[in-house]
């Protein structure tokens, strides 16, 4: 769904009129000619309304909707949390650049931390826009099948925004509609379990309304699907199983949901691992959900169809800022000759997409950069066209493998992991490893590389093998922090002083493993009269 600039502009304009507040959620008179009364009587307008919800998921930074002062919130990216706050990555760039990332890394996080504030603000903006669709589309006069699909997309996206919130902040206010002006100052926080139950309800309903991936026309690839809803539901249950499991989930549920995705025959591993994060790998057979971007000449701001994600992670010697540096700890996790290593990290002297990369250690913490975010310099460096992969089929296989291991289906778990390893060992080198070329050179992987897991693996040894596979398969894809937290390993990766600070912010609800929470945006905690998270 490489949404055109014109389509994104229309969607932006439509929802600017209809969805004025993630902060105040006040009902206001529409500012344009399109209103909630006629929005869903026209199929084009209805699709644009849903496009506007996707649009928020793509925002790196942007306006704080509902703020009469027009406040502009700064950048936030999932790698700031999922990678940099874990043992997979360091902040990167020069020591003094973007100190708010150091606050995250060290758990010295004020309630005004910009990436945290923007995560909160944008999530509720997306929720408000999704609610506009969910609460008005049933009364529309568009085709019933299109109506069902669009409502399913909005439900999926509302669950997606809430999932990002609950992982980071714990229980949050639950909005299934926009509060009235009198209700807005009196919102309350739900518990973590209640928030997850809300998300699960959305994704279960979405799965009944959404089509399979193959039912979409080529122009609509990238929209939410039945498979995406079921896979995200499995991911949310896995997370609860290792944290607050107030909804009494079981590993059998994860096993069943991932089995449903696998037996749908809608997905397969892309044969070449090195192509996954290239343009040829966008919305591929392996993709369950990814955030869509396209080329443009725009720079900063949510109206751009591109992303600033790439410039923030690319080499300062090319066109980037050099953040999110892979650690030696991550590099050492890869087995000898694993082709995934070269497709994950850039080291000094590597040729990337035909360009020689020099890494200056005065502006790099570890000597490595994230190759998965490396792209050819776009028209506007701040408007990268690369889609961000959020859910891959390999994740579904490894989630099922972990569920199978927990259910003592060891041989099945091993076979699933071996599928992922087999694909990896047949990968080529990443494209453009010779100056001036973009070809995929053979990796010449030696025989015996990445051997199949031993058939007798069981218990903790099998789980360790699965967790290892997740780390190297999804390196620099923003999953590491959450995998560490849900498996109870996160706190032990932290230096003693950082661990103590993290524990001072631990969730107070009964949990399988202790885990820290981010601070709620200071302004909203005060204006909504919400209790702040521990220690802030």
TrEMBL record:
Gene3D superfamilies: 1.25.40.390. Transmembrane segments: none annotated. SUPFAM superfamilies: TPR-like. It comes from the Bacteria. It is found in: Cell outer membrane. It holds the Pfam family SusD-like_3. Residues 286-536 form the RagB/SusD domain. Residues 98-235 form the SusD-like N-terminal domain. Keywords: Cell outer membrane, Membrane, Signal. One of its GO terms (cellular component) is cell outer membrane. Belongs to the SusD family. This is RagB/SusD family nutrient uptake outer membrane protein. It comes from Hymenobacter taeanensis. The lineage of its organism: Bacteria, Pseudomonadati, Bacteroidota, Cytophagia, Cytophagales.
């Amino acid at each position: 769904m490489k949404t055109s600039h014109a389509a994104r502009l229309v969607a932006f304009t439509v929802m600017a009129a209809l969805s004025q507040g993630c902060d105040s959620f006040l009902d206001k008179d529409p500012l344009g000619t399109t209103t909630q009364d006629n929005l869903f009587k026209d199929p084009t307008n209805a699709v644009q309304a849903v496009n506007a919800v996707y649009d928020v998921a793509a925002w790196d930074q942007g306006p704080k909707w509902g703020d009469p002062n027009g406040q502009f919130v700064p950048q936030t990216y999932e790698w700031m949390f999922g990678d940099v706050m874990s043992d997979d990555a360091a902040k990167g760039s020069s020591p003094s650049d973007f100190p708010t990332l150091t606050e995250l890394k060290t758990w010295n996080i004020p309630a005004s931390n910009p990436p945290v504030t923007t995560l909160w603000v944008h999530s509720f903006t997306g929720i408000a826009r999704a609610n506009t669709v969910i609460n008005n589309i049933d009364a529309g006069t568009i085709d019933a099948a299109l109506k069902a699909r669009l409502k399913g997309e909005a439900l999926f996206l509302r669950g997606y925004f809430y999932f990002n919130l609950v992982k980071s902040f714990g229980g949050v206010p639950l909005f299934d509609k926009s509060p009235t002006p009198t209700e807005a100052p009196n919102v309350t926080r739900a518990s973590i379990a209640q928030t997850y139950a809300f998300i699960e309800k959305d994704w279960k309903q979405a799965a009944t309304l959404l089509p399979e991936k193959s039912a979409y026309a080529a122009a609509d690839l990238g929209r939410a699907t039945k498979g995406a809803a079921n896979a995200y539901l499995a991911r949310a249950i896995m997370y609860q199983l290792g944290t607050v499991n107030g909804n009494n989930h079981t590993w059998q549920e994860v096993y069943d949901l991932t089995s449903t995705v696998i037996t749908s025959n809608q997905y397969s591993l892309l044969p070449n691992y090195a192509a996954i994060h290239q343009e040829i790998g966008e919305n591929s057979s392996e993709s369950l959900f990814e955030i869509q971007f396209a080329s443009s000449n725009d720079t900063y701001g949510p109206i751009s169809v591109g992303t600033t994600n790439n410039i923030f992670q690319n080499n300062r010697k090319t066109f980037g800022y050099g953040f999110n540096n892979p650690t030696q700890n991550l590099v050492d996790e890869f087995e000898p000759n694993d082709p995934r290593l070269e497709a994950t990290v850039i080291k000094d002297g590597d040729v990337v997409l035909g360009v020689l990369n020099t890494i200056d250690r005065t502006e790099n913490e570890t000597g490595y950069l994230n190759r998965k975010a490396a792209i050819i310099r776009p028209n506007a460096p701040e408007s990268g066209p690369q889609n961000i992969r959020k859910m891959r089929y390999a994740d579904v296989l490894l989630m099922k493998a972990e569920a199978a291991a927990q259910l003592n289906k060891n041989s099945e778990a091993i076979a699933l992991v071996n599928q992922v390893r087999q694909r990896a060992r047949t990968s080529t080198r990443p494209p453009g490893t010779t100056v001036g070329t973009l070809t995929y050179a053979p990796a010449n992987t030696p025989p015996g590389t990445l051997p199949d897991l031993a058939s007798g693996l069981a218990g903790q040894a099998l789980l360790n093998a699965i967790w290892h596979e997740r780390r190297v398969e999804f390196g620099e894809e923003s999953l590491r922090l959450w995998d560490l937290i849900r498996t109870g390993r996160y706190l032990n990766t932290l230096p003693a002083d950082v661990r103590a600070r993290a524990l001072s912010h631990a969730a107070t609800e009964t949990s399988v493993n202790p885990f820290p929470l981010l601070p709620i945006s200071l302004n909203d905690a005060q204006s909504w009269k919400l209790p702040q998270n521990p220690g802030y």
